[in-house]
Amino acid sequence: MEQASYPMLDPHRRVHEAFKSRALSYADRIQKGEDTFRVGREVRSDIGLWLTNHIKRDDKHYVPFVKKSLDGSFASKMLSKFFGRRPASA
Prior knowledge:
71% helix; mainly alpha
């Protein structure tokens, strides 16, 4: 994303940092003696929802920037060779 000059890189990083903090808070709760099964259920639900929503919503915004930065690059040529065509646009 940085090499692709994605304009929302800093906010995107902050979203990831907030998620990381939330994930670490689960480990902290378990270490403090909270019920592992209960925390585990929350983790499964929270992380599953976050990943699904984040990928569908936030990650798709940087795809055009990355694709544009890959045009004519070695990676773009290899993807084309591997898939037999240019990757479909988002």
